[in-house]
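--- STAGE predict ---
source: upstream dedup step, 1 unique chain passed
mode: sequence only
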Amino acid sequence: MAADPLSDLLQLLDARAVVAGGLVAGGDWSVAFPGAEQIKFWGVVRGSCWHVSDEDAAPLHLVQGDVLLRIAPRAARLCSDRDIAPVRLADIRGDSSDVVTRVGNGDNFFLIGGMVELGEESERLLRDVLPPFVHVRGDSVEAEPIRWLLAQLLQEREGERPGRTAASAQLIQLMFLHILRVYMATAEDMPAGWLRALNDARLAPVLRLMHADPAHAWTLNELALASSMSRAAFAAYFNKVAGVAPMRYLTEWRMRIAQRALAEGRVPLARLAESLGYASESAFSHAFKRVTGQSPTTRRRRIVETPS
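--- STAGE serialize ---
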């Protein structure tokens, strides 16, 4: 199978999506949600509401089928009317173990919430390339798979079929991937970074080469040839789109692979260095410390000492 850089990066990010719960509401209602470090998303299964953030100048109107990916750790409120004073989520949820919170009178509104669990470094990589909020409109052509996933999530929630927890987690994982796909397909001013580079037609073959064989001693001439550009034009274009030089991207990609390998097992550093194209363990260690700020040995020790 051909290299798939987006899948590669998502695998190394180790993004685990889980169902966080739901919100049922009716009548006049408003709920204040605290800021959260986790990346969260909400899918509107039924009805409509307003999403208002104190730091966001434009409130968003969410309707059935819409999904909102919340990247920034900002407090926000969901409401039927923006003039209604909110109640805190903690106050209405209380000590209840029910994953569905109810507010107001009735049930004409229903929302399913989820979160993406990431390590600190992985969260930084996503926050660097995504806006504070990604709003996917349910009536758009690109959102068709997401509408289907929302319907399946509702079936899993309302049914008692075996394995519904595992099935819901997989559906949320797919929803996260599709949200990223929609953003990549529709964003007009995507910031420079790895996500924009993955989405660029001229750089896609270059990234496939680097991801398929990170140990190869790639040269600017080889990579420029894959992009059908001159060496100088390719170097300038890559830096503009990816935000880093081609060789810097390659080095950072190698170090992400190394970080995952260090976390997963006791692979000898010399063997890891060779698998990533370094002639010696010392050359690999120098590159690793330059990119991550710590030596491979220190990194491995911190992983071992950190409780899971």
